[in-house]
Write a structure and sequence with these properties.
Number of domains: 1
Number of helices: 4
CATH class: Alpha Beta
CATH superfamily: Peptidoglycan recognition protein-like
Radius of gyration: 15 Å
Largest sheet: 6 strands, mixed
Strand content: 15-25%
Order of helices and strands: EEEHEEEEEEHEHH
CATH architecture: 3-Layer(aba) Sandwich
Number of strands: 10
Strand order of the largest sheet: 1-5-4-9-3-10
Length: about 190
């Protein structure tokens, strides 16, 4: 896998989301944000997340989906529990994953970050395949962009977001990935 000049990573499934736009001119991509998502909550391996990111989710198909009507969100990547990765937005574009956010005094984290969603919840461990692919993808992205820090969604939107949650093993991800230890760190 490798990041092409167009911001798409080779060797994975691509499913373009319309929920993106142009990054501010001259903005360096230096933050990686880890999230978790499942739709409906706690249910895995369905198509609902991809449908949400591509604005094709039938909000009448499940009672939980009704609250998502009209929501326009995306992430650059989704890593399913099987380890399969789907890219929804070119890394050169701004995905709509962080929402109202701030990191080190900088607001609008979507401007300077890449968002990776892990299929999961705050309350269940993530799979071995997810950690392996997250580490691999992180290394690829770090080679292509000046990523200096890796944080959770909860770090850039405290009080509003809790993901990736207490079940995400930061030590496993960072130490086994050779990404240095500690959370909210400079790389």
């Amino acid at each position: 896998m490798k990041v092409g000049t167009n911001g798409w990573v080779s060797g994975m499934r691509h499913l373009a989301s319309p929920n993106c736009d142009v990054r501010p001119s001259g903005t360096a991509i230096n933050l990686l944000v880890i999230h978790n998502i499942s739709l409906p909550p706690g249910e895995f391996s369905g198509k609902a997340v991809a449908q949400l990111f591509t604005n094709t989710l039938d909000t009448d198909a499940h009672f939980y989906f009704a609250q998502l009507k009209g929501i326009r969100v995306s992430a650059h990547f989704l890593i399913q529990r099987t380890g399969e990765i789907t890219q929804f937005v070119s890394c050169s574009k701004r995905a709509w994953h962080a929402g109202a956010s701030m990191w080190h005094g900088r607001t609008a984290c979507n401007d300077f970050s890449i968002g990776i969603e892990l299929e999961g919840t705050d309350f269940l461990p993530f799979s071995d395949q997810q950690y392996a692919e997250l580490i691999r993808l992180t290394r690829i992205l770090k080679r292509a962009y000046p990523i200096r820090e890796i944080v959770g969604h909860s770090d850039i939107a405290p009080g509003r977001k809790t993901d990736p949650g207490p079940e995400f093993d930061w030590s496993r991800y960072l130490e086994k990935g050779g990404l240095k230890t500690g959370r909210k760190r400079n790389l």
